[in-house]
Amino acid sequence: MVNLNDLGITGNAAPQTEYETLILGIANDVTQQLREAVLAKASNSGALAQSVAYFPTGALSFEVQADQYYKFVDEGVNALPKKDGYTYRRALMTGSPFSFKYDGVGTRMATAIQKWKGGSMPQAFATAYSIKRHGIQARNITPSVFNEELLQKIADDLLQLTGLQFNVTFTKNTNTWQKLQTARIP
């Protein structure tokens, strides 16, 4: 059996200070806003929105994480190079840091599309091939949530609680995920 104390989890998980209560409120708000933005902007089964969760990284900090494919939905995936003889039905995605590497469709991709869209496996393979040829359009979920308005609201909440001014910044890093940072203004 796992001892929760070994994982840094104590029996009293409630916030101990006003600061912890504020951080918990911010984490809950940001997580909910990201989930709502995923549901509104991304075409998926809802599983991606359900995967968005915050994780405490210290008494006064947290990270927001989601399934690994969030970054592809958020920032898009570049289309494969144009192919002679292929009929393109919509604009090709370009400008993403991510790209499809080859035109073959793997079984995992086709199976995921079949679970999402339904239909037969041949239809899922055809849909996957079309997705690779056209790319995945960026949904820009993260910038729609982590905007100046949200960062200013957090700074205002910190000012109200502490009486100190803070400069709140957001760093997007999908390798270690999303980090919200504050720095006191001297």
Descriptive notes:
The protein has 186 residues and is of the alpha+beta class. The chain folds into 2 domains: 15-71 and 139-184; 77-134, no CATH class. It is built from 7 helices and 4 strands. It has a 4-stranded antiparallel beta sheet with strand order 1-2-4-3, covered by helices on one side. A hairpin with a 3-residue loop joins strand 3 (166-173) and strand 4 (177-184). The longest helix is centred in the N-terminal third of the chain and has 24 residues, at 18-41. 20% of the residues are buried. Residues 176-186 have low confidence and may be disordered.
In what order do the strands lie side by side in the largest sheet? 1-2-4-3
Number of domains: 2
Largest sheet: 4 strands, antiparallel
> How much β-strand is present in the residues?
5-15%
| Strand runs, count | 4
Q: State the helical fraction.
A: 40-55%
Q: Based on helices, strands and strand pairing, what is the structural class?
A: alpha+beta
Quaternary structure: single chain
Helix-strand pattern, N to C?
HHEEHHHHHEE
> What is the mean predicted local confidence, pLDDT?
83
- Provide the low-confidence segments as ranges: 176-186
Cα(first) to Cα(last) distance is 48 Å
Radius of gyration: 21 Å
What's the tally of helices? 7
Shape, principal axes of CA atoms = elongated
